[in-house]
Design brief:
By secondary structure, the protein is α/β, with parallel strands linked by helices. It contains eight helices and seven strands. Helix 1 links the parallel strand 1 and strand 2. Helix 1 crosses helix 5.
Length: about 160
């Protein structure tokens, strides 16, 4: 079973990149440490943090992964390696905004919500059941894939 995460306020960019590779990551930038710990316990999520004070708290100690490195690329490599995450397995399967798994959207339904060129050039559309955001494959998907490969292969 893949780990489920909750990222603290210092790790917003890491949370986004983990969502890009399909990880279930809650990111609540304005939540206090006590609430973060309570949420992680209630939802069975591992806390990702760079906060040394949070890492020292007894209530969080057994349910925490301390992320080293200041750069999100180093952080992503660290988490992917530590948890043996396959970055291709669920690439772009979650909403990058709200973390919900994406659902396939009927092409005709998408027609009224996307620009005509996008509708004419794309076959597959996915949508977030929570926020309604639509996703489709295009040059940005290819760019993310290339950037991800670059990040994960860099020493």
């Amino acid at each position: 079973m893949e780990p489920r995460f909750i990222a603290d306020a210092m790790l917003g960019k890491l949370a986004t990149w983990l969502r890009i590779i399909g990880c279930d990551v809650v990111f609540l930038p304005d939540v206090a440490d006590d609430r973060l710990i309570a949420l992680s316990q209630a939802e069975g999520r591992l806390i990702l943090t760079r906060d040394t004070r949070l890492a020292q708290r007894r209530a969080a100690r057994d349910n925490l992964f301390f992320v080293r490195g200041d750069d999100y690329r180093d952080q992503l490599r660290q988490v992917v390696t530590a948890f043996a995450i396959d970055p291709d397995k669920r690439f772009l399967s979650r909403c990058l905004r709200c973390n919900e798994p994406l659902e396939e959207i009927d092409r005709e339904t998408a027609a009224e919500r996307v620009p005509p060129y996008v509708f004419d050039t794309q076959e597959l559309f996915r949508g977030c059941p929570a926020c309604g955001r639509l996703y489709w494959g295009a040059t940005h998907r290819d760019a993310m894939s290339r950037q991800l490969k670059e990040i994960l292969t860099r020493p």
